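Q: Structure for this?
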Amino acid sequence: MHFGVLTAALFTLQDIPSTPVNSSDSLWLWIAMGVGVLALIAAFVLARIVLAGDTGTAEMQAISNAIREGAEAFLSRQYRTIGILAVVIAIVVFFGYYLSPRTQDVALKTVIAFLVGAICSGLAGFTGMYVSIRANIRTASAARTSLNKALQAALRGGAVTGLVVVALSLLGVGALFFFFGGLDHPRQVPYQLVGFGFGASLVALFAQLGGGIYTKAADVGADLVGKVEAGIPEDDPRNPAVIADLVGDNVGDCAGRGADIFESTAAENVGAMILGAALYPVFGIKGILFPLIVHAINLVASIIGVAVVKTNDTEDPMSALNRGFYVTAVLALAGFATAVYMMLNGPGVQPMYLLFCGIIGLATAFLFVWITQYYTESKYRPVKSIAEASLTGPATNIISGLAVGMETPAMPVIVISAALLLSYYCGVQGLAGFPGISDYAKGIYGTAIATMGMLSCAAYILAMDTFGPITDNAGGIIEMSNQDESVRDKTDKLDSAGNTTKALTKGYAIGSASLAAFLLFSAYLEEIKSIVTAKVSAAGSAGYMPPGWSFTNINLAEIPVFVGALLGAMLTYLFSSLAIKAVGRTAQMVVKDVRDQFRENPGIMAGTSKPDYARCVSIVTGAALKEMVLPGILAVGLPVAVGLIFRNFSSTYGAGSEVLTRNGILNVPTINGVPVNLGGASAVAGLLMVGTISGILLAMLMNNGGGAWDNAKKWIETGQYGGKKSDAHKAAVVGDTVGDPFKDTAGPSLHVLIKLLATITLVLAPLFL
Amino acid sequence: MHFGVLTAALFTLQDIPSTPVNSSDSLWLWIAMGVGVLALIAAFVLARIVLAGDTGTAEMQAISNAIREGAEAFLSRQYRTIGILAVVIAIVVFFGYYLSPRTQDVALKTVIAFLVGAICSGLAGFTGMYVSIRANIRTASAARTSLNKALQAALRGGAVTGLVVVALSLLGVGALFFFFGGLDHPRQVPYQLVGFGFGASLVALFAQLGGGIYTKAADVGADLVGKVEAGIPEDDPRNPAVIADLVGDNVGDCAGRGADIFESTAAENVGAMILGAALYPVFGIKGILFPLIVHAINLVASIIGVAVVKTNDTEDPMSALNRGFYVTAVLALAGFATAVYMMLNGPGVQPMYLLFCGIIGLATAFLFVWITQYYTESKYRPVKSIAEASLTGPATNIISGLAVGMETPAMPVIVISAALLLSYYCGVQGLAGFPGISDYAKGIYGTAIATMGMLSCAAYILAMDTFGPITDNAGGIIEMSNQDESVRDKTDKLDSAGNTTKALTKGYAIGSASLAAFLLFSAYLEEIKSIVTAKVSAAGSAGYMPPGWSFTNINLAEIPVFVGALLGAMLTYLFSSLAIKAVGRTAQMVVKDVRDQFRENPGIMAGTSKPDYARCVSIVTGAALKEMVLPGILAVGLPVAVGLIFRNFSSTYGAGSEVLTRNGILNVPTINGVPVNLGGASAVAGLLMVGTISGILLAMLMNNGGGAWDNAKKWIETGQYGGKKSDAHKAAVVGDTVGDPFKDTAGPSLHVLIKLLATITLVLAPLFL
């Protein structure tokens, strides 16, 4: 049977007899789910170990409790807000599906998947944060005795987040696949999981936006009024905003990035399963379950990687963390190779090529991390050039930082381009034995395997990332409770390693978002094809489906697609602008409150009375939650608006239909002789793809520019160009402050935006047709 | 005869019998050319009038002479550099064409067109500058007696640039059309003119880059060492860099923007003629000559507009300039309407709709100018918010300015989207009487008419723009020659109006570049179609051409197109980064030289001896010319590299061929049964389109962000937030300095880059196949 016809006929649930699945193949689902459960248990054990640690002096506990209360208060209010938004969107999605006759049967499933995705993401964020805000004081306390103990406490605390995030993504997708009948209808059910990715994205968007606004508003506000106006050092307990600043590290870096990576793995799981379904004739259900197995490997490798990390009191903690990462990467690669040879194999398949796709993905991750280091570490040219430019004042520091930021996308874009081209090529070669399948489908599957390869160490990377805010908090607790200099040295070392890991994971996150983007486009195109096929088939004899038709034509030369592309790129700029302005406004409220507190209570500066930390925390919480709504609604609303507008007006512009029929041969699907209107779907695809490209570049500019400014300041503080208090340092502080909302609010929120665009278009595709 | 088949057969010069052109129709060519010659005469007369003006005191003359010598020295060295590059590129283009059998016959014509375009652009730049560096002192001298005389001297000096630029573009295209035999082969010759646009683009790129680097390096360098280190005011004659700064205004703003608009009109003329050729069955040669007539109208309307401008000593000069603009716009519109009804008319055409396209273009120009005002004038929220943020220091000033900059693309993108959709719609409606022509071709022609409408006031706009550097220079001459306070008041008024016009023209330039971009894409697609058609037809019976085939499929879902798109967007960032860094490096050389001069000759600061202005001018000249080469080569090299790489490797990735044949129906052109490889052409199109989108947005960010910073500083100087010398003012100066290379180097260079990408791909299209 011709493959094109076969896939064309595949996607109407009603019409296709269920495909009996070899029960030994479905075992893979249970293996993956089993590992997921074990990983949760491991996370629980790790959490118990961390929580059993010593909690230091009463003074330290008081500080830690204040952070914990602030973080938990923010999270609970944030989740309430997100919950309300999620329910509203769930209702919209449900009726969106229900209004289209073809999708009525999946309406409820999509909403269930959406809610499960949202809840799992929330749960993962909450659990990770629950542990990390308790790990901070244990790390601080351990630093009083041994660097190794402190390092292990922080990394293990971080590992809880890493394991819970990946395991819940795996279990959520796996469970939905099973309960939706995936073992009976393996080729249809992956499409019904798109809601899971969207739910994860939605929570991630608000978690990252709200957390990002919170953390930088508190940071900038505390610095402006504390360091600049009052002349007190960072983390000084007299500063009423100091606790809000420490809370921010948790809710921004920890909960935010956790939600970001949860979304990445969720979207990648679902997208790769959809592409696996398109290759069902080659791999059967094993191709669909492969992404889940990859994440099971990811979990096992990461647990071992975390377990082997130990250090002594003289070593740079970063070396110990890197050792753990290398162990994880080698194990993940070995596991990946085994999985490829066991699952993606068979007559006509050359698994070597497919394994090579995975290696390309892993290599891409390494290169992204290396490029991020090059642009943000003080030993290389970019940071040095910013530090040197600080000699002539803040203006040249800023110009130089922006120039570095604009340079940063060049190398990553070349790496991503090479990775896409190579993995596509390997996909085509690896499946060359199937002449009936288009090279396009084979190549795209190659890029999907590369994405899985890149994400195959995600749990360890996330552990390293969450290590950052834990050590940052530990340092703050030590600083505020006036511990010994030698203890402070240890936490400073850890804090510095934490800053590095935070920067590197940002490189990793944007790299995986870039690679996953192409996978998600392809899934979107498959989704549109599946809906059109079902529509035409539902029309019975009035419908005509050209043999082997696919929706793979996102033609930039069509006006609606071009307009969609323009709007998509514009969205990334406007969204960033709103996020940055939100930080500015919220920071002003912090400044105002701190000034008020200093005025109302002169005892604070004298050190005779305590500032009201909670008041400041509560103000930032309220403002950040309010500010996250507008950019969030813009991100959700614009793609929907474009899809709906061009669905209704596109026939005027001939998008997706007229251009295809212009040659006089009917090669578009028709119902009653009228071509199916693909204008809305095409315009949205243009928005998605060009929005993604623009978002990736802008995020790199902001993340790396911000990181470079930060480290230029730190480098000057080591004594370069006059060291602390020199004019160069003052100029560098300006750059650092500018970089803060770039690298910790707008940049990371753009990662999430890119993936949200992909998942929202996947879920709402039926509305655009 | 079916239109598709007709156009498919059109484009091989050898095969098609010449189409006899109605001689009354060819009269339009002579009318347009005649007006072009008259406009040159008018420019000559205007120049005579301006040059007849009084040249002030000996002290003023000494300053003016120094500016003139510096500007002329720069221009002559710059043109030598550009000349060498142009000859090298001409040779490459010639052999590029000559290696492809189909294009051998046009190889020489393309090179001739390229060189004519480059020479005309250089000539226009040189003439405009020749007059404006002489108009500055006449303006300064006139300001000693009457504001009206000064205003008229400056505007008329600027009008010489405006008229020469538009007239040379018109005459160059018209003459080439005639000498290449356009009256005999009207449907083929427009394709042979693409070299003219490329020549103009190449000169414009280097003129804008070199001039932009020069002007801002001198400005930033002079400020850093003069205002900040030595504590002397702007334009103080003791500053050795002050003449270089004034020279910079001429070579950057005046010669640079002149080349930019020359390129816009040239590219628009050629692109619109190609689209006119595609609609030959409807309008005949009149559709091809229409763009030339529009520019003839532009010239007449602008001459009258300039002539009516007069003011009195109390009025805001901006009101007088605006009156002239309104007169020009009304006349241009009336002329445009007449031309539409006389030329774009006939059975089946509804000229009302086509006129409406032109109105849409003009309205777009107005809206762009209004939006630019909104974002850059101190009476609106954005500038006010930056000024307010300056209260908390330079960091918040910068954050706020960047947030404003990132917000700016939103409204223009919506305007451009609406303009594209509406003009496309009107194009389809206006030509609804021709069922044989695809809606796509009709709609695209509608967008082309809108672009012509937008550019129909270009000469006046350019006069207003060149008014800026002339009044800026006049102010500097008055300042340096210690004139009376009342004279200074007059030049300050003019200078302030000049700053406004400079900002507005930047809005206009980016608006026209955005709208022209779509026209140029379409011309590129037509060009590819024409080459493929010729190739297939040259293969005789071995070739197969699907009926009505067009190259209109730039499919972002194909890996090579997506990679091209990623690289195109990346190019705009890297190019901007290089331009900004070039300013920084050159400014450092200025700082060093000024410091050296102060040290070597203490009499300078004491006011007892003159600084060596020429030494500083010569240093900036050399550095700016060196620095413009790398970004220039990147801009030229990357599209060529992408085209060549994917031409050779694309078959692996199935771009432009496999996807189209996937449905099993052969709807691609083949030779010996092998599909023509369109991978290179597709990847380049992706680069072009997404590079353009990214470039437009980035340019808006930089132009408007820079303008807003500038005016926030100026607003504070009027006494807001503590006025001059307050901390808020210091913070605002930082923002202004950061904005300088944004708004005067990188932003304007991006306008040119966008158009260069379009013209280089048009010219080198044969290499990509």
